[in-house]
Amino acid sequence: MRELYNNLTNDHNKYLRPTDDQSLATAIVTSFYIVTLQEINDVKGTVSITGYFDLKWKDVSLRWIPSSYGNITSIVLPRDFVWTPPLLVANSGEKIKYIRMKGSSVRIEHTGTVIWTPGSQFVFTCSINSVNFPFDQHECVLEIVAWGYSNSEIVFNSTFEEVMTSFYSSNSEWELTKTKALNHNLNDGVAEIFLFYISSADRYSMSLTLFFPLL
Question: Domain Neurotransmitter-gated ion-channel ligand-binding: where (predicted)?
Answer without folding.
Answer: 3-189
